[in-house]
């Protein structure tokens, strides 16, 4: 692969993740799900606990619950590392998530993503994405808990333990 092609592929991968953030924060559930392959997996890991959502229907249910139970989010991803090997890629980046409420803007998540992508019909799709949350204890107690707990309960009831 030429340097120019490698750069174009890397930019296409970064676009997938920008679309992922903009669709989640813009309440576009279908657009968010389209970032994933048909058998895509989204996984949340915090304090050694892992919860997965596998396949298009589970992904759609997850993002709809996120939109309904955590409106007002902004996902910010930085420090992208991309390793492309043919039609597969590995990606890692830092994530910070803001949650806007009338009284305050909270940092609702801090951590990193690690993702595996594959090219499907000429487009990069997320095959497996894990969000590693640094601040899981804040989800259960403290001022953020009142905003996060309904979503945590939903995930526990509807996800699959990994």
Automatic annotation (TrEMBL):
InterPro entries recorded: NTF2-like_dom_sf, SnoaL-like
SnoaL-like domain location: 7-129
Short name of one Pfam family: SnoaL_4
Residue runs in coiled coils: none
SUPFAM superfamilies: NTF2-like (SSF54427)
Protein name, as recorded: SnoaL-like domain-containing protein
Species the sequence originates in: marine metagenome
């Amino acid at each position: 692969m030429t340097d120019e092609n490698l750069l174009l592929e890397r930019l296409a991968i970064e676009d997938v993740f920008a679309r992922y953030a903009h669709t989640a924060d813009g309440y576009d559930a279908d657009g968010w799900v389209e970032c994933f392959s048909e058998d895509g997996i989204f996984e949340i890991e915090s304090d050694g606990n892992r919860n997965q959502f596998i396949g298009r229907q589970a992904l759609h249910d997850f993002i709809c619950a996120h939109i309904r139970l955590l409106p007002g989010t902004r996902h910010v991803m930085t420090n992208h590392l991309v390793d492309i090997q043919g039609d597969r890629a590995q990606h890692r980046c830092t994530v910070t998530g803001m949650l806007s409420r009338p009284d305050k803007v909270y940092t609702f998540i801090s951590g990193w993503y690690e993702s595996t992508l594959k090219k499907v019909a000429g487009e990069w799709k997320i095959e497996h994405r894990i969000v590693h949350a640094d601040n899981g204890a804040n989800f259960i107690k403290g001022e953020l808990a009142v905003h996060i707990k309904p979503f945590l309960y939903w995930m526990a009831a509807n996800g699959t333990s990994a």
